[in-house]
Amino acid sequence: MAIDSFYQRFGEAVARHRNVKAMTQADLARKLGMSRASLANIERGEQRVYLHQAIQMAGELDLEDMSELIPHNKRLEAPPLADVSHSGDRVNRTQERVIKQLVSSITSSTRKQ
Fold this sequence. Notes:
The protein is an all-alpha fold. Helix content is 57%, strand content 0%.
């Protein structure tokens, strides 16, 4: 599964669970502290989310855990780490090292599956 497909399926899951709860995009966005437009972009797979946002979404949607939003596929085709863009936030060297270790760990574990 390509990264873009992953975020599209994640967004579809958010929208599906939001609709089951009879919540509007504006309702959920307000609870998450984001704009309705941002949530709409997430639901279309056009905006990536931080881990803490995904956890918060699962909580606001009253899900047992975040895994109900995560598309499961044994082969996630991640782009090379150098190609991963970010929102412009600055990270220090320690944070960058931790992020690289996490991505490496995730990438290697998905290859083993």
